[in-house]
Amino acid sequence: MSAESSVSPSRVGVWLIGARGSVATTAVTGCAAVTAGLHPPTGMVTETPAFADCGLPPLSSLVFGGHDMVDCPLPKRAEALAAGGVLPPGLPAAVTAELAAADREIRLGGPLSGETRDEDELVEALASDIRDFTNRCGLDRTVVVNVASTEPVPTGAQLPASSLYAAAALRAGCPYVNFTPSMGLHHPALASAASASGLPYAGRDGKTGQTLLRSVLGPMFAQRALAVRAWSGTNLLGGGDGAALADPGAAAAKNAGKERVLADTLGGVPEGETHIDDVPSLGDWKTAWDHIAFDGFLGTRMVLQTTWQGCDSSLAAPLILDLARLVARAHETGLSGPLSELGFYFKDPVGEGPAALGEQYAELVGFAGRLRGAGAGAGAGAGTGSGGPLRGVGDPQLPSGERLGSSDDRAASSGERVASSGERRGLSGERR
């Protein structure tokens, strides 16, 4: 049963940060394939009966564009993914027109190596790309989604690339989704701008594999009053994500979300660590092992071991489509601020909410009910070329504007690691 609504004929932009990466390419290809009836919407939660008649934009209404630092065309990226078994054979050729159309809407991101523009100039350039896309394509609204490479945790006064893109989304008047562990809109310098923007936003760090399983197993141990003594894990992955996470700082940012799930569901972090190993030959495929030691009645020590083998891009892509539709609909109804009800999709969700997957799903279904009962609100028409506002209410002023907070706000906590100048280069599309 399709959840697409016949009520909302709007065209919705999906602006992908990291638009030529594996996740983005799979999302664009998959959207075209499902729209054409070539494949079912497997993995898309918004295509289940619980989301029927919610006013979500149809998949056929989504228009893709984005920023990236690489120039390999999307049709070639899709062919490479098909050769690696990520996409079905022959599918890139079947949807090559849609891939080429999306590729024409991809612009060079930033910061570039040797960048001479200051932060405000760069944010304005990125925001201008998004506004031009929205106007040129005649879109009712555009949702900006970060699916780029994971950044190390930054400190200091300079905004990392992910936060510059987030600021650009606000300045362009667009809702924002951070599917990565990178700072993005979480940076303290953007807090007041996000609050004043009147825009909805969601994130961060998509939950697709090992942490998805942990969010189910953690509550099980807690509910059965079994004492977890140790929880250790290992991730083996390749591709661009494996290369990015070979950086200890990026790996630390990724692992923080995994540990948060355990802390929130178990009431504390047990012994053990999670290790991430780059294995280039694995390509887009990942293996995750967990070893869980726990005590039962009378202190009897027992062990549960799990193995998760999956394709990250195929797991993430349907969630990107879900989130773009949900956030677009939230914007249409006039919702603003952190969408904590979308915590179902994330390791480190914004706002307050449960950590257990079952409880998160219940909140998501409740959110669908809210959307079902809502009409078009204050967000209707925002970001269009037909009179709607093109700049966010908060319109963050960089680098020294009041809405971005004080210099103290811009300095991250003393426990965070300082990013090197090389880490501030633009985000590429290899992710997860």
Task: Please supply descriptive tags for the structure shown above.
globular; NAD(P)-bd_dom_sf; alpha/beta; seven-stranded parallel sheet; 13 helices; Myo-inos-1-P_Synthase; four-stranded mixed sheet; Myo-inos-1-P_Synthase_GAPDH; 11 strands; 432 residues; Inositol-3-phosphate synthase; single chain; Dihydrodipicolinate Reductase, domain 2; inositol-3-phosphate synthase activity
Short description:
The protein is an alpha/beta fold and 432 residues long. It is built from 13 helices and 11 strands. The chain has 2 domains: 12-206 and 314-424, Rossmann fold (3-Layer(aba) Sandwich), CATH 3.40.50.720; 210-310, 2-Layer Sandwich (Dihydrodipicolinate Reductase, domain 2).
Structure notes:
This protein is α/β, with parallel strands linked by helices and 432 residues long. The protein has two domains: 12-206 and 314-424, Rossmann fold (3-Layer(aba) Sandwich); 210-310, 2-Layer Sandwich (Dihydrodipicolinate Reductase, domain 2), CATH 3.30.360. It has helices spanning 22-35, 74-83, 91-94, 96-103, 119-136, 161-171, 191-197, 210-223, 239-245, 248-266, 312-332, 357-372, 407-410, and strands at 12-17, 62-68, 106-108, 141-146, 176-178, 200-203, 227-237, 274-278, 285-295, 301-311, 337-338. A seven-stranded parallel beta sheet has the order 3-2-1-4-5-6-11, with helices on both faces. Strand 9 (285-295) and strand 10 form a beta hairpin. It is globular and about 70 Å long. The two termini are 30 Å apart.
